[in-house]
Amino acid sequence: MKLVESFMTQELSEKLKDISIAFNVPEQEVLTWLRSSVRSSWGDSPMKRYMETKHKFQIENTNPRSCKRFPKVWRIRCALCEEAYSPLSMELDHVYGDNSLKTYTDAQSFIDSIIFVKEEDLQWLCIDQFRVKDLEKQVQELASEEVETEMDELIEIDTTEIHKNNIRRAL
Questions:
Q1: What is the 3-state secondary structure (H, E, C) of the chain?
Q2: CA–CA separation, 83 vs 133, rounded Å?
Q3: What is the pLDDT of residues 87-121, one digit of tens each?
Q4: Cβ count within 10 A of residue 76
């Protein structure tokens, strides 16, 4: 019983680290599993179904091949391009996509940002707009990583020069 109580009071990052060690699973594999589990549960969530029900509307079917059997079809409007698409061609996007999961310490904030989201922080995007937004995010992340790498190199060079100068002064 004490083990269960101890486990329930541990931080999520500690719990993930513990199961990684207990089952001899690398950190990245645990994080990949967590990421896919959280995203999968979001995809099947009642909140997502609520958003679809709230935002979908019917229009007249103009497809000659199916209009007799299905005179009306469901559509959802894209928040960016404002075109109406089939719900199957839409993605429910988290407006604030700071959903990083690179280490165990990111786990709780990742879950909170995906699962415990407010309605106003969600938007429907067509697949094309969703891809564009995703690519823009990837470019920003790459640029940010490059800047960090360059800053680290500059700091290392600067630190090395300082050490050299200190050694010269000492001599």
A1: CHHHHHHHHCCHHHHHHHHHHHCCCCHHHHHHHHHHHHHHHHHCCHHHHHHHHHHCEEEECCCCCCCCCCCEEEEEECCCCCCEECHHHEEEEECCCCCCCCCHHHHHHHHHHHHCCCHHHEEEEEHHHHHHHHHHHHHHHHHHHHHHHHHHHHHHHHHHHHHHHHHHHHC
A2: 16
A3: 999 999 999 877 889 999 999 999 999 999 999 99
A4: 23
Q: Are the C-beta atoms of 73 and 52 separated by less than 8 Å?
A: no
Q: In the numeric block, which tokens belong to residue 132?
A: 């564009």
Q: Which pTM value belongs to this model?
A: 0.74
